[in-house]
């Protein structure tokens, strides 16, 4: 009985070694075939990650004073934007309420601000070519004042 157990143990060891060497050979051959497949087709198009669109508050958080005075519009709107006049944020900073003045073709379409609907929808963008109205007036008067100061100093 002892000899039978010893021969069984020896055969298990040899079969384990055989299985290990076979798995090693299979892994090496599959790794080389996948590497050769990758080298044969290097122009495989990579999946482009889709950029997550932002709601109004996620766009405004990077602007000075949360975008008050700046123009925002939905991505599918053409020639329509809101000049943000007031933002009421909830604690998380991604939700809240916003008010603004409607602009069509760059000109104000209303005198009084109104509540902006759809601020939580993920389709908002910042309009870059329209300047902030409160920033443009001090810069223009400041440059005119400096021109007057230099003209009076020269005479």
Automatic annotation (TrEMBL):
Region of interest (Disordered), ranges: 34-53, 132-155
Molecular function as annotated in GO: structural constituent of ribosome
InterPro entries noted in UniProt: Ribosomal_mS34
Top-level taxon of origin: Eukaryota
Any one Gene Ontology cellular component term annotated for this protein: mitochondrion
Pfam families cross-referenced by the UniProt entry: MRP-S34 (PF16053)
UniProt xrefs under PANTHER family: 28S RIBOSOMAL S34 PROTEIN (PTHR35316)
The protein's name in its UniProt record: Mitochondrial 28S ribosomal protein S34
Species whose genome carries this gene: Acacia crassicarpa (northern wattle)
């Amino acid at each position: 009985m002892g000899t039978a157990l010893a021969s069984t143990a020896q055969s298990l060891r040899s079969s384990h070694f055989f299985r290990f060497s076979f798995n090693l050979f299979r892994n090496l051959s599959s790794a080389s075939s996948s590497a050769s497949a990758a080298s044969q087709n290097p122009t495989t198009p990579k999946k482009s990650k889709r950029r997550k669109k932002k709601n109004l508050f996620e766009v405004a958080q990077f602007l000075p004073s949360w975008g008050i005075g700046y123009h925002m519009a939905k991505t599918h709107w053409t020639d329509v934007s809101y000049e943000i006049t007031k933002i009421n944020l909830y604690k998380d900073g991604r939700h809240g309420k916003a008010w603004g003045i409607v602009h069509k073709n760059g000109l104000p379409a209303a005198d009084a601000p109104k509540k902006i609907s759809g601020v939580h929808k993920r389709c908002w963008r910042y309009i870059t070519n329209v300047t902030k109205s409160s920033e443009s007036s001090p810069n223009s008067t400041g440059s005119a004042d400096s021109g007057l100061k230099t003209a009076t100093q020269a005479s």
